[in-house]
Amino acid sequence: MDDVVPSPARWTAATVYPDMWTDPDQDPRNSEGPAPEGELATLEEYLRDYRATLLMKCEGLDAEQLARRSVPPSTMSLLGLLRHLAEVEQDWQGWLEPDLDHPTLYGHPDGDFDGARPEEGLVREAREALAREQAQTDAALARYPDLGTRLEPSGSSIREIRVHLIEEYARHCGHADLLRECVDGRVGQ
């Protein structure tokens, strides 16, 4: 029993709603007011908010905390999620621009998680790669304002790609919730 690591106490930075990550006036995702107008604007807002959520879950942590793995045998960590989602963004760019060469960022399957080591340089590179790949995905998606546009050769619609991106971030933001709570006890949606 000597190898049992004590769990951190649960806490939140929110004072208004105890189940929130932060108070509404501090939350960049705060969506008080009217909802976006139309399907495209709604999809863009959901993706923007999930991307912001992932970054918020990583704020204030050092390289060791970001690289800390969940539970064996999983290799998942917050740093691994940053790296993984950069690869996800790049992968969807390949669907949007099939004629362009999109080599994987981390070399091999699971390289995104396996290579997530507690080094400040890797953290910086992961954040830069994610921001770069998000910008490139957004630029590629902007060329297709019609959600019903079908891409060749896959036949996938732009709507499908946008929803898949949202789904990927939503799933991994759930992982990030648990990973962050394991690191320092901070909770909140």
From TrEMBL:
Residues 15-39 are annotated as: Disordered. This is DinB family protein.
